[in-house]
UniProtKB/TrEMBL annotation:
Similarity annotation: Belongs to the NAD(P)-dependent epimerase/dehydratase family.
Membrane spanning stretches: none
Region of interest (Disordered), residue spans: 17-70
Record SUPFAM superfamilies: NAD(P)-binding Rossmann-fold domains
Low complexity bias (residue ranges): 17-39
The keyword 4Fe-4S is assigned to this record: no
Gene3D superfamilies listed in its UniProt record: NAD(P)-binding Rossmann-like Domain
Superkingdom: Eukaryota
InterPro entries (UniProt xref): NAD(P)-bd_dom_sf
Protein name, UniProt field: NAD(P)-binding domain-containing protein
Length: 309
């Protein structure tokens, strides 16, 4: 990704980088589409795209930083100009969604959530059309499509929810199909988090939450989601599906026990009161790690909060 042009596309609102599943409780941020030009160009690389500034969906500030360290100039395309000052501070040249350009780029990463558009697969297709077929096109999706809700084990090869069963997973699977049709790759991300963003932060704000405490969830730090995305893009693979998680699934109660143990949060969580909502899944992305040659900076939520045993 040296001497290339990158475009980051996301939406300018409060949910930037996390899987749609955690978008409700809270997830991470990340840009929504990154594109880079041919490696043989002598000019400075540039990036442009759309970015959503919230902990829920798909594009953390870590991504632009990772790309900047790769020598990329970043252009961020957003739905509104609300966060353009923040993007400039991150080294991103902002523009609004719909800005016309005839440029085609060798590297594109799409990280915008489906919640702000009526035609998500169509938006993904538009991003794909800005890819010149070289380098990589990567779509940040969610682990929600994996068909498991009994706290069972799940990996890259596990079956997905059939089309037609759930509108929420339908929109993701249809968008993924567009990506692989163009030869792009997909990374299905677990719940994104950082100190002040993620499910734990949402639950602390609420105090008491009407969901069951034994539901298993899966996490990945924003920085790790960004570094894994960049590592996948550098491989220049075609029509592949990868999984992003820290391989340390936790129950909701375990997450909040770790928060309490860390002593780093002033608010007190009261508890979970639900009993009948669905269970989760235990994600493992060992195959992705082996193929990409990647390991997370934060191997678990407890490591991040400094209470790992």
């Amino acid at each position: 990704m040296d001497a290339a042009t990158t475009i980051i596309i996301a939406s300018s609102s409060s949910s930037y980088f996390a899987p749609p599943r955690l978008a409700r409780p809270s997830s991470p941020r990340f840009p929504s589409s990154v594109r880079l030009p041919s490696s043989g160009t002598s000019r400075a690389p540039s990036v442009s795209g759309i970015s959503r500034l919230d902990p829920r969906l798909k594009s953390p500030p870590s991504t632009p930083r990772s790309l900047r360290h790769s020598g990329c100039q970043i252009h961020g395309q957003t739905v509104t100009s609300d966060h353009h000052d923040e993007l400039v501070k991150l080294g991103i040249i902002p523009s609004l969604k719909g800005t016309k350009t005839d440029q085609r780029f060798p590297y594109v990463i799409f990280c915008a959530p489906p919640s702000r558009t009526s035609d998500y697969p169509g938006d993904v297709r538009l991003a794909a059309l800005s890819w010149n077929g070289e380098g990589s096109f990567l779509f940040t999706s969610s682990s929600a499509p994996y068909d498991c809700n009994d706290n069972g084990n799940c990996d890259e090869d596990s079956p997905v929810v059939p089309i037609g069963r759930s509108p929420r997973t339908d929109v993701l699977l249809k968008a993924e199909a567009v990506v692989t049709e163009f030869g792009g790759s997909v990374i299905r991300l677990a719940g994104l988090y950082q100190a002040d963003r993620g499910a734990h932060s949402y639950w602390l704000q609420k105090g008491t939450v009407e969901v069951r405490p034994d539901h298993i969830l899966n996490l990945i730090h924003y920085e790790d989601a960004a570094s894994l995305s960049v590592a996948i893009m550098k491989k220049k693979l075609r029509s592949r599906i990868f999984l992003g998680c820290d391989n340390h699934p936790l129950s909701r109660q375990e997450v909040m026990d770790i928060v309490e143990k860390s002593g780093k949060f002033s608010k007190k969580f009261e508890g979970f009161t639900g009993t009948n909502d669905p269970l989760g899944k235990k994600l493992n992305n060992s195959k992705t790690r082996a193929e990409i040659g990647w390991e997370p900076k934060y191997p678990s939520f407890s490591h991040f909060l400094g209470v790992a045993e």
